[in-house]
């Protein structure tokens, strides 16, 4: 009897085409996700000389990663789960891991596009120039940092089933990360809050991105921040996978 189950590569290609098509149709929301870090980058042009180009770029990249992981990825999987899309896909002859790999691939492409956009705007508007090693290392640490927010988004979607509640929660967390993280990092909320922020998910990601943009400035504290980032990503992802349900029942 002939096996009618399609090859994994065929299934994954079909899912990728569908997910990229959906992302293109929702391009207005993608533009909004990109606008926030780019607007901050352009508005902070006068602070480049005071804070340093790497600091400004890292803040904007970290904010962008937060937006993609929380506002983009989390809300999309919560919405599709509520519509029953995941449940219908699960009865098809395909492995469940291909569904999430396809979704995550789309997010990784968005993350790469965001980092490129920040680098371009930083170069042409803020006149921030890095070494080739800084750009490459920055890309790498940006991808590592994105795992924290994708994992956090997965955890929120696993913990909360109602898509409207998921949307409200991600907005609240996103706002808290931006306001407390950004102002706390600058020391405007006191030294105690600044210390907490530096070792929070926001601060750890910001630290490894900032120091990777200047490889010569990488220190033992940078390595500790990298280990903290990996730890956050592992815990969030583990809980997100454990708690996630393919339907809202």
TrEMBL record:
Membrane topology: Multi-pass membrane protein
Molecular function (Gene Ontology), one example: ABC-type transporter activity
Domain of life: Bacteria
InterPro entries from the UniProt entry: ABC2_TM, Nod_factor_ABC_transporter
Chief localization: membrane
Protein name: ABC-2 type transporter
Location in or out of the cell: Membrane
Organism, scientific name: Chitinophaga rupis
